[in-house]
Amino acid sequence: MAKQYDVLLRLLLLGDSGVGKTCLLCRFTDNEFHSSHISTLGVDFKMKTLKIDGIEVRVQIWDTAGQERYQTITKQYYRRAQGFILVYDITSSRSFQHIVKWASDVDEVSFPQ
Ligand SMILES: Nc1nc2c(ncn2[C@@H]2O[C@H](COP(=O)(O)OP(=O)(O)OP(=O)(O)O)[C@@H](O)[C@H]2O)c(=O)[nH]1
Q: What does the alpha-carbon distance between residue 51 and residue 91 come to, in Å, rounded to a whole number?
């Protein structure tokens, strides 16, 4: 079967638990919003195909659990990602301060010294 896209882009959503990563993804792929918070267990993903300058780009977005206990699992997905979306809750300064930690995790795993 012929490929239905020209380029595959793998992105990873990172951020504290409850900041809205899953909601952002549901809005982007399905234009839906769910008010309940069911924590992501490990990782999950959704896809959307966009046409950019005549090129079919399949965006595969991996949604990771923000909870500390899943870090070992989620870090295994960092190396295969081509980009990261760091998410914080605008009503939580703590989640914003943690962005530094998420960014340093990405550096540590994806660009080891
Ligand atoms: N008011 C408001 N609530 C939001 C918004 N985005 C998400 N929420 C709520 O925040 C809660 C957590 O959202 P999730 O998307 O599940 O959070 P998450 O970052 O995926 O959480 P983990 O899976 O535990 O890492 C849910 O109850 C959402 O309804 C927003 O833009 N505004």
A: 34
How many angstroms separate the alpha carbon of residue 53 from the centre of ligand 1? 32
pTM: 0.92
Report the distance separating Cα 31 and Cα 92, nearest Å: 24
What value, to the nearest 5°, has the Cα angle with vertex 86 and ends 80 and 89? Answer: 150
Q: How far apart are CA 102 and CA 111, in angstroms?
A: 14
In this predicted structure, the answer to whether residue 7 has a pLDDT above a threshold of 70 is yes
Q: Cα–Cα distances in Å, from 38 out to 7, 17, 54, 109?
A: 32, 10, 37, 27
Q: What pLDDT is stored for residue 3 in this prediction?
A: 78
Cα-to-centroid distance, 40 and ligand 1 (Å): 11
Q: Sign of the CA dihedral 111, 52, 27, 62?
A: negative
pLDDT in tens, 56-89: 999 999 999 999 899 889 999 998 999 999 999 9
> Which pLDDT does position 4 carry in this prediction?
86
